Amino acid sequence: MSQATYSASPTPISPAGKAVTLQFADNTLLPLLLGDHDRHLVRIEQALGVRLSCRGNRVAITGEVSRVDAARSMLQGLWRRLERGEVVGRPEVEAAIRLAETDLDPRLPLSDLPAIHTRRGAVSPRSAGQAAYIEALALHDMVFGVGPAGTGKTYLAVAQAVAMLQTGKVDRIVLSRPAVEAGERLGFLPGDMKEKVDPYLRPLYDALYDLMPVDQVTRRMNNGEIEIAPLAFMRGRTLAHAYAILDEAQNTSAMQMKMWLTRMGEGTRMVVTGDLTQVDLPAGVTSGLRDALDTLEGIPGISVVRFDRRDVVRHPLVARIVDAYDQRAAAQGDKRREARRSRDGGDAAGK
Question: Residue 162 has what pLDDT?
Fold first, then answer.
Protein backbone atom coordinates (compact mmCIF):
# COMPACT_ATOMS: atom_id res chain seq x y z
CA MET A 1 0.00 0.00 0.00
CA SER A 2 1.41 3.38 -0.96
CA GLN A 3 1.70 6.00 1.73
CA ALA A 4 1.64 9.77 1.93
CA THR A 5 3.79 11.41 4.61
CA TYR A 6 4.49 15.02 5.37
CA SER A 7 6.77 17.06 7.60
CA ALA A 8 6.24 20.62 8.73
CA SER A 9 8.96 23.23 8.76
CA PRO A 10 10.29 23.68 12.32
CA THR A 11 9.28 27.35 12.44
CA PRO A 12 6.57 29.41 10.71
CA ILE A 13 7.71 31.31 7.63
CA SER A 14 6.06 34.47 8.99
CA PRO A 15 3.98 35.41 12.06
CA ALA A 16 0.86 34.22 10.22
CA GLY A 17 2.51 31.81 7.78
CA LYS A 18 3.41 28.16 7.57
CA ALA A 19 5.24 25.76 5.26
CA VAL A 20 4.51 22.04 4.93
CA THR A 21 5.93 19.41 2.58
CA LEU A 22 4.04 16.27 1.62
CA GLN A 23 5.99 13.31 0.29
CA PHE A 24 4.15 10.72 -1.79
CA ALA A 25 5.58 7.22 -2.07
CA ASP A 26 3.83 6.02 -5.26
CA ASN A 27 5.07 7.88 -8.34
CA THR A 28 2.49 6.15 -10.56
CA LEU A 29 -0.39 7.82 -8.70
CA LEU A 30 1.21 11.22 -8.29
CA PRO A 31 0.40 12.48 -11.84
CA LEU A 32 -3.28 11.68 -11.18
CA LEU A 33 -3.16 13.79 -8.05
CA LEU A 34 -1.49 16.72 -9.80
CA GLY A 35 -3.68 16.63 -12.94
CA ASP A 36 -2.66 17.37 -16.50
CA HIS A 37 -0.07 20.17 -16.48
CA ASP A 38 -0.58 20.39 -12.68
CA ARG A 39 -4.08 21.80 -13.22
CA HIS A 40 -5.36 20.34 -9.94
CA LEU A 41 -2.62 22.12 -8.00
CA VAL A 42 -3.34 25.38 -9.83
CA ARG A 43 -7.05 25.14 -8.99
CA ILE A 44 -6.29 24.49 -5.30
CA GLU A 45 -3.90 27.46 -5.26
CA GLN A 46 -6.60 29.72 -6.71
CA ALA A 47 -9.29 28.51 -4.32
CA LEU A 48 -7.35 28.50 -1.06
CA GLY A 49 -4.82 31.26 -1.64
CA VAL A 50 -1.78 29.08 -0.96
CA ARG A 51 1.39 28.42 -2.92
CA LEU A 52 1.93 24.84 -4.13
CA SER A 53 5.11 23.64 -5.78
CA CYS A 54 6.00 20.09 -6.85
CA ARG A 55 9.50 18.73 -7.12
CA GLY A 56 9.98 15.00 -7.64
CA ASN A 57 7.55 13.21 -5.34
CA ARG A 58 7.20 16.17 -2.93
CA VAL A 59 4.57 18.88 -2.85
CA ALA A 60 5.39 21.97 -0.80
CA ILE A 61 2.57 24.13 0.59
CA THR A 62 3.13 27.67 1.88
CA GLY A 63 0.69 30.30 3.05
CA GLU A 64 -1.47 31.26 6.00
CA VAL A 65 -1.58 28.60 8.71
CA SER A 66 -5.28 27.71 8.38
CA ARG A 67 -5.14 27.63 4.57
CA VAL A 68 -2.01 25.47 4.55
CA ASP A 69 -3.70 23.01 6.91
CA ALA A 70 -6.79 22.96 4.67
CA ALA A 71 -4.68 22.34 1.53
CA ARG A 72 -2.73 19.58 3.28
CA SER A 73 -5.92 17.81 4.40
CA MET A 74 -7.37 18.20 0.91
CA LEU A 75 -4.35 16.67 -0.86
CA GLN A 76 -4.18 13.81 1.64
CA GLY A 77 -7.89 13.10 1.17
CA LEU A 78 -7.55 13.07 -2.63
CA TRP A 79 -4.52 10.79 -2.29
CA ARG A 80 -6.49 8.31 -0.20
CA ARG A 81 -9.11 8.21 -2.97
CA LEU A 82 -6.40 7.29 -5.47
CA GLU A 83 -5.05 4.59 -3.15
CA ARG A 84 -8.53 3.06 -3.02
CA GLY A 85 -8.62 2.98 -6.81
CA GLU A 86 -11.14 5.83 -7.09
CA VAL A 87 -11.08 8.58 -9.69
CA VAL A 88 -9.68 12.03 -8.95
CA GLY A 89 -10.74 14.55 -11.59
CA ARG A 90 -12.06 18.07 -11.66
CA PRO A 91 -15.37 17.20 -9.90
CA GLU A 92 -13.52 15.52 -7.04
CA VAL A 93 -11.11 18.44 -6.69
CA GLU A 94 -13.99 20.94 -6.69
CA ALA A 95 -15.75 18.84 -4.04
CA ALA A 96 -12.62 18.79 -1.87
CA ILE A 97 -12.36 22.58 -2.20
CA ARG A 98 -15.98 23.08 -1.12
CA LEU A 99 -15.46 20.86 1.92
CA ALA A 100 -12.18 22.54 2.81
CA GLU A 101 -13.85 25.95 2.70
CA THR A 102 -16.56 24.85 5.16
CA ASP A 103 -14.49 23.37 8.00
CA LEU A 104 -16.47 25.44 10.51
CA ASP A 105 -19.82 24.97 8.79
CA PRO A 106 -22.36 23.74 11.40
CA ARG A 107 -24.05 21.62 8.71
CA LEU A 108 -20.93 19.41 8.56
CA PRO A 109 -21.52 17.21 11.64
CA LEU A 110 -18.99 14.45 11.07
CA SER A 111 -15.21 14.43 10.99
CA ASP A 112 -15.38 11.25 8.91
CA LEU A 113 -17.70 12.06 6.04
CA PRO A 114 -20.66 9.72 5.52
CA ALA A 115 -21.21 7.87 2.26
CA ILE A 116 -23.97 5.85 0.58
CA HIS A 117 -22.79 2.40 -0.47
CA THR A 118 -24.39 0.84 -3.53
CA ARG A 119 -23.20 -2.13 -5.56
CA ARG A 120 -21.77 0.33 -8.07
CA GLY A 121 -19.59 1.84 -5.38
CA ALA A 122 -19.72 4.50 -2.69
CA VAL A 123 -21.50 7.81 -3.27
CA SER A 124 -19.62 10.40 -1.22
CA PRO A 125 -20.67 13.96 -0.35
CA ARG A 126 -19.25 16.82 -2.38
CA SER A 127 -20.26 19.61 -0.03
CA ALA A 128 -21.04 20.23 3.62
CA GLY A 129 -24.76 20.30 2.88
CA GLN A 130 -24.54 16.95 1.11
CA ALA A 131 -22.72 15.45 4.10
CA ALA A 132 -25.49 16.59 6.45
CA TYR A 133 -28.10 15.30 3.99
CA ILE A 134 -26.52 11.86 3.68
CA GLU A 135 -26.41 11.59 7.46
CA ALA A 136 -30.07 12.62 7.71
CA LEU A 137 -31.07 10.05 5.06
CA ALA A 138 -29.37 7.34 7.11
CA LEU A 139 -30.89 8.32 10.45
CA HIS A 140 -34.42 9.63 9.85
CA ASP A 141 -37.62 8.12 8.50
CA MET A 142 -38.72 11.38 6.89
CA VAL A 143 -36.33 13.91 5.35
CA PHE A 144 -36.95 17.18 3.52
CA GLY A 145 -34.13 18.29 1.20
CA VAL A 146 -34.65 21.91 0.18
CA GLY A 147 -32.41 24.08 -1.97
CA PRO A 148 -31.33 25.22 -5.42
CA ALA A 149 -30.82 23.11 -8.52
CA GLY A 150 -27.57 21.19 -8.80
CA THR A 151 -27.12 20.38 -5.12
CA GLY A 152 -27.74 16.62 -5.46
CA LYS A 153 -31.01 16.50 -3.51
CA THR A 154 -32.70 14.00 -5.80
CA TYR A 155 -29.62 12.00 -6.78
CA LEU A 156 -28.53 11.32 -3.20
CA ALA A 157 -32.07 10.39 -2.16
CA VAL A 158 -32.28 7.88 -5.03
CA ALA A 159 -28.81 6.56 -4.10
CA GLN A 160 -29.99 5.92 -0.53
CA ALA A 161 -33.11 4.22 -1.86
CA VAL A 162 -31.06 1.97 -4.15
CA ALA A 163 -28.68 1.07 -1.31
CA MET A 164 -31.55 0.09 0.98
CA LEU A 165 -33.29 -1.92 -1.75
CA GLN A 166 -30.11 -3.79 -2.62
CA THR A 167 -29.48 -4.69 1.04
CA GLY A 168 -33.09 -5.79 1.61
CA LYS A 169 -33.93 -3.00 4.08
CA VAL A 170 -36.93 -2.00 1.97
CA ASP A 171 -39.00 -4.07 -0.45
CA ARG A 172 -39.43 -1.45 -3.13
CA ILE A 173 -38.71 2.07 -4.29
CA VAL A 174 -41.50 4.52 -5.15
CA LEU A 175 -40.47 7.67 -7.02
CA SER A 176 -42.96 10.42 -7.74
CA ARG A 177 -43.20 13.93 -9.15
CA PRO A 178 -46.07 16.34 -9.74
CA ALA A 179 -46.82 16.91 -13.43
CA VAL A 180 -47.67 20.57 -13.00
CA GLU A 181 -47.81 21.61 -16.62
CA ALA A 182 -50.15 18.75 -17.49
CA GLY A 183 -52.41 19.46 -14.52
CA GLU A 184 -55.61 17.48 -14.74
CA ARG A 185 -55.53 17.45 -18.54
CA LEU A 186 -53.20 14.54 -19.25
CA GLY A 187 -55.80 13.21 -21.64
CA PHE A 188 -55.07 16.02 -24.09
CA LEU A 189 -51.45 14.89 -24.48
CA PRO A 190 -50.57 12.37 -27.23
CA GLY A 191 -49.72 8.74 -26.49
CA ASP A 192 -50.67 6.27 -23.78
CA MET A 193 -50.46 7.15 -20.09
CA LYS A 194 -46.79 6.19 -19.77
CA GLU A 195 -45.87 8.34 -22.75
CA LYS A 196 -47.87 11.25 -21.31
CA VAL A 197 -46.09 11.34 -17.94
CA ASP A 198 -42.59 10.02 -18.69
CA PRO A 199 -41.14 13.44 -19.67
CA TYR A 200 -41.94 14.73 -16.17
CA LEU A 201 -40.25 11.73 -14.54
CA ARG A 202 -37.12 11.53 -16.72
CA PRO A 203 -34.71 12.91 -14.07
CA LEU A 204 -35.69 10.04 -11.77
CA TYR A 205 -34.97 7.49 -14.50
CA ASP A 206 -31.59 9.13 -15.15
CA ALA A 207 -30.58 8.82 -11.49
CA LEU A 208 -31.60 5.15 -11.37
CA TYR A 209 -29.69 4.27 -14.53
CA ASP A 210 -26.59 5.96 -13.13
CA LEU A 211 -26.77 3.97 -9.90
CA MET A 212 -27.87 0.55 -11.19
CA PRO A 213 -27.26 -1.52 -14.34
CA VAL A 214 -29.94 -0.89 -16.95
CA ASP A 215 -31.05 -4.53 -17.03
CA GLN A 216 -31.48 -4.54 -13.25
CA VAL A 217 -33.57 -1.35 -13.37
CA THR A 218 -35.76 -2.87 -16.09
CA ARG A 219 -36.18 -6.14 -14.22
CA ARG A 220 -37.03 -4.47 -10.93
CA MET A 221 -39.51 -2.14 -12.63
CA ASN A 222 -41.20 -5.08 -14.33
CA ASN A 223 -41.61 -6.99 -11.07
CA GLY A 224 -42.81 -3.94 -9.13
CA GLU A 225 -39.75 -3.38 -6.95
CA ILE A 226 -39.27 0.05 -8.55
CA GLU A 227 -42.24 2.24 -9.35
CA ILE A 228 -42.09 5.66 -10.98
CA ALA A 229 -45.40 7.49 -11.15
CA PRO A 230 -46.86 11.00 -11.10
CA LEU A 231 -48.15 12.24 -7.77
CA ALA A 232 -51.79 12.05 -8.88
CA PHE A 233 -51.49 8.24 -8.94
CA MET A 234 -50.66 8.06 -5.21
CA ARG A 235 -54.08 8.99 -3.85
CA GLY A 236 -55.74 6.29 -1.74
CA ARG A 237 -52.62 4.14 -1.42
CA THR A 238 -50.55 3.08 1.59
CA LEU A 239 -46.82 2.71 0.98
CA ALA A 240 -45.43 0.03 3.31
CA HIS A 241 -41.82 -1.22 3.53
CA ALA A 242 -40.88 1.19 0.75
CA TYR A 243 -38.45 3.99 0.09
CA ALA A 244 -40.64 6.78 -1.24
CA ILE A 245 -39.29 9.96 -2.84
CA LEU A 246 -41.33 12.98 -3.89
CA ASP A 247 -39.26 15.18 -6.20
CA GLU A 248 -39.99 18.78 -7.30
CA ALA A 249 -42.27 19.07 -4.28
CA GLN A 250 -42.42 22.87 -4.53
CA ASN A 251 -44.99 22.28 -7.29
CA THR A 252 -47.47 20.48 -5.07
CA SER A 253 -50.45 22.17 -3.47
CA ALA A 254 -50.85 21.99 0.32
CA MET A 255 -53.57 19.34 -0.13
CA GLN A 256 -51.38 17.24 -2.43
CA MET A 257 -48.47 17.41 0.01
CA LYS A 258 -50.64 16.28 2.91
CA MET A 259 -51.95 13.45 0.73
CA TRP A 260 -48.38 12.32 -0.07
CA LEU A 261 -47.08 12.50 3.50
CA THR A 262 -50.01 10.49 4.82
CA ARG A 263 -49.26 7.62 2.40
CA MET A 264 -46.44 6.59 4.75
CA GLY A 265 -46.93 3.06 6.05
CA GLU A 266 -45.06 0.61 8.25
CA GLY A 267 -41.33 0.27 7.52
CA THR A 268 -41.31 3.12 4.99
CA ARG A 269 -38.73 5.87 4.57
CA MET A 270 -39.89 9.05 2.89
CA VAL A 271 -37.89 11.87 1.27
CA VAL A 272 -39.31 15.14 -0.08
CA THR A 273 -37.10 17.34 -2.28
CA GLY A 274 -37.71 20.73 -3.84
CA ASP A 275 -36.54 24.24 -4.62
CA LEU A 276 -38.76 27.02 -3.30
CA THR A 277 -37.27 29.52 -5.76
CA GLN A 278 -38.70 27.59 -8.72
CA VAL A 279 -42.41 27.27 -7.97
CA ASP A 280 -44.50 26.76 -11.14
CA LEU A 281 -47.90 26.81 -9.46
CA PRO A 282 -50.60 29.30 -10.54
CA ALA A 283 -50.52 32.69 -8.85
CA GLY A 284 -52.15 32.62 -5.44
CA VAL A 285 -51.61 28.88 -4.85
CA THR A 286 -49.41 28.18 -1.82
CA SER A 287 -46.62 25.68 -2.39
CA GLY A 288 -47.25 22.45 -0.51
CA LEU A 289 -43.53 22.25 0.27
CA ARG A 290 -43.52 25.66 1.94
CA ASP A 291 -46.70 24.82 3.83
CA ALA A 292 -45.25 21.49 5.03
CA LEU A 293 -42.04 23.11 6.25
CA ASP A 294 -44.01 25.77 8.14
CA THR A 295 -46.18 23.07 9.70
CA LEU A 296 -43.82 20.17 10.34
CA GLU A 297 -40.31 21.49 10.93
CA GLY A 298 -39.19 20.64 14.46
CA ILE A 299 -41.36 17.55 14.84
CA PRO A 300 -39.25 14.64 16.23
CA GLY A 301 -38.36 12.11 13.53
CA ILE A 302 -38.51 14.66 10.70
CA SER A 303 -35.24 16.12 9.42
CA VAL A 304 -34.99 19.24 7.25
CA VAL A 305 -31.74 19.85 5.36
CA ARG A 306 -31.36 23.18 3.58
CA PHE A 307 -28.87 23.54 0.75
CA ASP A 308 -27.49 26.80 -0.62
CA ARG A 309 -25.24 27.91 -3.48
CA ARG A 310 -22.17 26.50 -1.67
CA ASP A 311 -23.64 23.03 -2.22
CA VAL A 312 -24.11 23.33 -5.99
CA VAL A 313 -22.05 20.52 -7.53
CA ARG A 314 -22.76 21.11 -11.21
CA HIS A 315 -20.62 23.43 -13.31
CA PRO A 316 -19.12 26.24 -11.15
CA LEU A 317 -21.17 28.74 -13.16
CA VAL A 318 -24.38 27.26 -11.74
CA ALA A 319 -23.46 28.46 -8.24
CA ARG A 320 -22.80 31.95 -9.60
CA ILE A 321 -26.12 31.93 -11.48
CA VAL A 322 -27.98 30.89 -8.31
CA ASP A 323 -26.20 33.62 -6.36
CA ALA A 324 -27.04 36.26 -8.99
CA TYR A 325 -30.74 35.40 -8.89
CA ASP A 326 -30.73 35.41 -5.08
CA GLN A 327 -29.09 38.84 -5.03
CA ARG A 328 -31.63 40.22 -7.50
CA ALA A 329 -34.52 38.80 -5.47
CA ALA A 330 -33.08 40.35 -2.30
CA ALA A 331 -32.70 43.74 -4.04
CA GLN A 332 -36.27 43.59 -5.34
CA GLY A 333 -37.48 42.76 -1.84
CA ASP A 334 -35.60 45.76 -0.45
CA LYS A 335 -37.20 48.02 -3.09
CA ARG A 336 -40.69 46.74 -2.25
CA ARG A 337 -40.13 47.32 1.47
CA GLU A 338 -38.80 50.83 0.81
CA ALA A 339 -41.80 51.60 -1.39
CA ARG A 340 -44.17 50.40 1.34
CA ARG A 341 -42.41 52.54 3.94
CA SER A 342 -42.60 55.60 1.68
CA ARG A 343 -46.29 54.95 0.96
CA ASP A 344 -47.11 54.38 4.63
CA GLY A 345 -45.20 57.54 5.55
CA GLY A 346 -47.11 59.55 2.98
CA ASP A 347 -50.44 58.20 4.21
CA ALA A 348 -49.55 59.09 7.79
CA ALA A 349 -48.53 62.62 6.79
CA GLY A 350 -51.81 63.16 4.96
CA LYS A 351 -53.93 62.33 7.99
Answer: 93
